Amino acid sequence: MKSINDRIRELGRSLGKQDTGGEYIEYSSLRKQYERQANADVRKLQAETKHKRIEAIHGRSDLNPKWTFANLIEDSTDVIEAVSIARSFIAAHEDVAWRQAGSHMMIFYGDYGRGKSHIAGAIAHELIEQYEISVLYRQLSSLLEMRFFSYDYNAQDNIGEKFREVNQELLDVDLLILDEVCVNESMLKKNAQSWLGNLLRQRLVNKKNCILITNHNLQELEIALGRYCFESIKEYDTYKVKFSGPSRRKEIITPETAQTASLASNTSGYKPNQVK
């Protein structure tokens, strides 16, 4: 027949109580144990909540997941210098006073395939992970196209409402990355210059940061954006980073295929649009 103590221990185990073998536990010790468990549960819940917030920010950012420092090959002096500047920019976010002091802009400029977008994306990923900074990556040309079509009042796809929502996102996000700025454009149209200039000025007032990525040099960029828009950029604390190293993109036409094509063009045969 079970004793009363055996029955008490069984009841305790069924309720999740620790079996102390009938040993008395002081209230202060028991309280500390429960506090440690409660704190551990709170930390776990906070970590899970933070992870969900970070995932949500990543989901809205439209960043390429491969644009990280881990995937970056630092094989030239310009990339090494750009990474150093990028890491300094990220580390500065630790200082709350720096973040609240004003607006900061990084201009990445150089030829195609030099790693500009990759490093900008790596900065964004780090800021999201470390400081939960909201980020939005957009190509300027796609925004201008959406803006143009938003004036089609006969459209049935609510393009005007969609652009207003996008425009509000551009104003509110902590870090805006604008890629392909003035790509294939020697000068933006006046209304596009005004829209972009106003966007940058409003972000400046709200102490929001930007990264502009362009294939133009700085002189060409000033002409392409127009004076009003470029003056908006001058108001920011600006960091200019030039990319001049080799292209990281794979060659489609290799020297061997180029030589074959050259030989083929010199052979006899039909050649269209020849003038004799």
Brief descriptors of the model:
276 residues, alpha/beta, Rossmann fold, five-stranded parallel beta sheet, 11 helices, 5 strands
Structure description:
This protein has 276 residues and is an alpha/beta fold. The protein is built from eleven helices and five strands, in the order ααααβαβααβαβααβα. Helix 9 (218-225) crosses helix 10 (227-234).
Secondary structure elements and pairings:
Blueprint: H1 4-14, H2 27-61, H3 77-92, H4 96-101, E1 104-110, H5 116-131, E2 135-139, H6 140-149, H7 159-172, E3 175-179, H8 190-205, E4 209-214, H9 218-225, H10 227-234, E5 237-243, H11 255-266
Helix pairs in contact: 3-5, 7-8, 8-10, 9-10
Protein name: ATP-binding protein
InterPro entries: IstB_ATP-bd (IPR002611), P-loop_NTPase (IPR027417)
GO molecular function, one term: ATP binding
Q: What is CATH's topology name of one domain?
A: Rossmann fold
Low-pLDDT segments? 267-276
Instruction: Kindly report the name of the CATH homologous superfamily of one domain.
Output: P-loop containing nucleotide triphosphate hydrolases
CATH class of one domain: Alpha Beta
Tell me, briefly, the overall form. Answer: elongated
In round numbers, the mean pLDDT is: 83
Return Rg in Å: 29 Å
Q: What about the largest sheet?
A: 5 strands, parallel
Under the CATH scheme, the architecture of one domain is 3-Layer(aba) Sandwich
Structural class: alpha/beta
- How many helical stretches? 11
Ends: how far apart? 118 Å
| Amount of beta strand | 5-15%
